[in-house]
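tool_call: predict_structure(chain=1)
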Amino acid sequence: MDTAASPAVTGLIEVRVIPAEATWPLRLAVLRPGRPPESAQFPGDDAPTTRHFGAFEDGRLAGIASLYAAEMPDRPGLAALQLRGMATAPEVRGHGLGRALVQACMAFARESGARLLWCNARTGAVQFYRKLGFAIVGEEFQIADVGPHFRMLCMVGETVHH
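tool_result:
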């Protein structure tokens, strides 16, 4: 069956580890539009503990997420990974790439021994993260030049009681 003739058919999604520089074009376009290219490069991108994931639809990189070894400010002492730089190309939103990326990040967090995965979620993305098991911690806050966010967390380690 030739699915190329039916654009309504959602393609195959594959999530895999990618190099930091592969995340920069999508980060810039989606998260830092109109900013200089270096604004898409985050501190820690090249740290040996950092992992960058790409979601590919029909072989094309269309979603990204990065994990950084970082304690959550509200939960000091717990092994944690911070999810940052999550973005999907506007034309593929709703295709499941974001969900696939977060699930890959959760699996990696568990495998690496982290107890929790956390992020500073843009206010508009809170419902997306809630559906995937994240909870809001604290009040809404502003990130300069980016906008309103909520800190969110998801327990991924063995002790999920809190």
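agent: Residues 97-111 form the longest helix (15 residues). Proceeding to next step.
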